[in-house]
Write a structure and sequence with these properties.
The structure is a homodimer.
Chain A lengths: L2 E10 L15 E13 L2 E8 L8 H14 L15 H8 L11 H20 L3 H9 L8 E6 L9 H14 L3 E5 L5 H15 L4 E5 L6 H11 L7 E2 L7 H10 L4 E3 L6 H10 L8 E2 L8 H14 L14 H10 L3 E4 L20 E2 L16 H5 L4
Parallel strand pairs in A: 4-5, 4-10, 5-6, 6-7, 7-8, 8-9
Antiparallel strand pairs in A: 1-2, 2-3, 4-11
Chain lengths: ~400, ~400
Amino acid sequence: MKITAIAERVVPIKSDIRNAFIDFSQMTVSVVGIRSDILRDGKPLIGYGFNSNGRYSQSGLLRERFIPRLLHAPPAALLTDDGASFDPAKAWDIMMANEKPGGHGERSVAVGVLDMALWDLVAKIEGLPLYRLLGHRYRGGAVDEDVFVYAAGGYYYPGKDLGALQDEVKSYLDMGYNTVKIKIGGASLAEDCRRIEAALAVLGEAAALAVDANGRFSLKQALAYAEALEAYDLFWYEEPGDPLDYRLNAALASVTSLPLATGENLFSTIDAQNLIHYGGLRPERDFLQMDPVLSYGLVEYLRTLDMLAEHGWSARGCIPHGGHQFALHIAAGLGLYGNESYPHVFQPFGGFGDDIPVRDGRIQPPQTPGIGMELKADLLPELERLFD
Amino acid sequence: MKITAIAERVVPIKSDIRNAFIDFSQMTVSVVGIRSDILRDGKPLIGYGFNSNGRYSQSGLLRERFIPRLLHAPPAALLTDDGASFDPAKAWDIMMANEKPGGHGERSVAVGVLDMALWDLVAKIEGLPLYRLLGHRYRGGAVDEDVFVYAAGGYYYPGKDLGALQDEVKSYLDMGYNTVKIKIGGASLAEDCRRIEAALAVLGEAAALAVDANGRFSLKQALAYAEALEAYDLFWYEEPGDPLDYRLNAALASVTSLPLATGENLFSTIDAQNLIHYGGLRPERDFLQMDPVLSYGLVEYLRTLDMLAEHGWSARGCIPHGGHQFALHIAAGLGLYGNESYPHVFQPFGGFGDDIPVRDGRIQPPQTPGIGMELKADLLPELERLFD
């Protein structure tokens, strides 16, 4: 059993979106395929991966470092001890050989893309949807058959008014979501309060609203927003300050009753551990959003979950950034709180199976072997193009 | 005044070196040239930059993100308000547009390479050696006319015995160094103690020895080494644990009298701030080794020095990783403690001016305008090749 080829392409995400920090219109994504010599129905099994939005394609790092390391490894070094499948943990060690500790960014995305492809391949070899494979390996066979998902949107668009925001929020309710997230921090506090009130008016009693500052605020601003936001019954207040400013986070957590959510811009287990040590988060109330694909893949995310368990956090405190099927399988298989979703944006990568609806804010993972990326009609051509 | 072209090449560092963590034989460096429309002696002024060793070339990030952002910026946006020169701080903001906070690695190196080239260009435009320009701007004209440098070596080589280690240490003394650093953690504690004793036997009373674990140790190992190392009069004990494991560092600092040194794998001001907040370092005893080129360049390093000053650290507590002329100018211009040097390795990038000797462990920066990379005969062809 061996890898016969690894293909990589860069695909742009076309978007008019901006949040408090970035303009997504220049954003790119790396898509990879890892082709094996295992035949199913006469065709080689291929695992696919891509990176979550918000960071960029990692073409150079993939082509110069991480793909060559996998291709140059002795084939047996990538396999489980019994030789029956590929071993993503062994592949991880090979990819990270000769990499110094510290400085976790970009390369963590490149490794995460290849890690996704390896898990897709492994689940296909075992003939299982990835979430079932994860449940068998790590939860004694238990899985969640559906997963909480929330609709992340409410971006600032040029010319977008409160009515347009309300139309957007309503569209998420119509799609079956009952929790919606909107951006804050790209306007004044007064204007953001009007946006929050407009969104809450649409959501009513039955649905919930989270807000996301994308790491923009100083401590003073974060506290001022917290004071104002406590007037509303919010699902959470996300990334108020710089994601690495643990002291700001701890100060805020010490004074606000609002649930806090953060972690999507921490890209390693040790960074997440620092958040837990120093960030003042409250396991019974707050949420952790580390994104497996941006942070060295599921192999590292499993280490992060172990670290969290040692510090009294359950997997139910985790709801990853990402908004794609890989994160959905991880949530269902490992028993996370849920998963982010970007209903109208980051296509064709975001979202879940085309024929799988959101019901009461929950969604089922696809039942096909692997991750099920091939079930998304608009994503399939991007995958097929890899080995053309 | 404008940038007319930016060229970028990848150059391998050929080396048999390994430390406790990595094998350098696959290491690559990005070299860039930023060409301006300013003519001197009929030729356009060019600023050059390259990345410090230990991390890899960032060709993909440079070509896909950071070089295009500089080239697509309106030319005036890169200039000082009076239009008389380029402004590295404005260029920094342009390079980092649409980059999310957090995840500081790789891109911090790409930005650092371009930042070095911009400072080289700015100093050439002003006709000053970079250290004098920095002294004028940031120290009221004061500069250090020579800088403490120490010889970092003592790597593990296949087949290298204690005699070879002693020969190496002696070669540094012969070159004029009086402080030498060797690696630890790639052998047993007993073997490392024999290596330390062998090195100290050569160094004698007049010279000093530092040791570097390259982030390899667990807390238990770090403490065991500390206990053993206290038997020797060491210059410092470097990077005992994971560079982001502030708790380990704080625990160690609370029990050891050895000076500690760390920071070369922290690549942003906010990461350095977390080290200061949580790492338990002692300003009167310990050393900070953040590398300007690996961590978003001198523009960010100036912010790091400001942050350090707010926390009671002087620039004299800083001795950057890097081992090249850019770091030497920064040390001389900003009044750092000194600068690392890699006498026999990382060529042609490491080291200082060919005709400038180390005397009593100190060295003078070159007196030519800019950084003076052109004064290294073996580096010059790499620079000239950029625009061939």
